[in-house]
Amino acid sequence: MDRFEFQRLAAERLEDAVALLNAGRFGCAYYISGYAVECALKACIAKKTKQDDFPPKDASKCYVHDLAKLLDIAGLGLVFADEASKDPIFRANWAVVKDWSEESRYLSRQQKQAEEILIAVNDHQHGVLRWLKGNW
To answer: Whole domain around residue 91: which residue ranges?
Structure first.
């Protein structure tokens, strides 16, 4: 997959999360919100390859579902730290999103949890996805 496919998937998964939340499918809305961030981070990694492609399968370190690790693999650690130090709302949004994991697909979530992660991802001024779009 190339970075543009990951960008498209991030936007599509965000729309899916909104639809799932509106349908009362809170566990799925939570999971898909985090998955949108994972796709956005993988778009950032693909950009870093300078070929716009996600690394080949033998680059196993990139094939993880840990958002903090993907942030580091994308080379965004310092840029992230700078943004987080300047924007406490962004920092708080990341604090909500960073706890997402692939295993969350197996867990039930309350409406509040699904709303919190979706807001943290989708906040148009301080959201995680907004910031990642500036780096992909």
So the answer is: 3-133
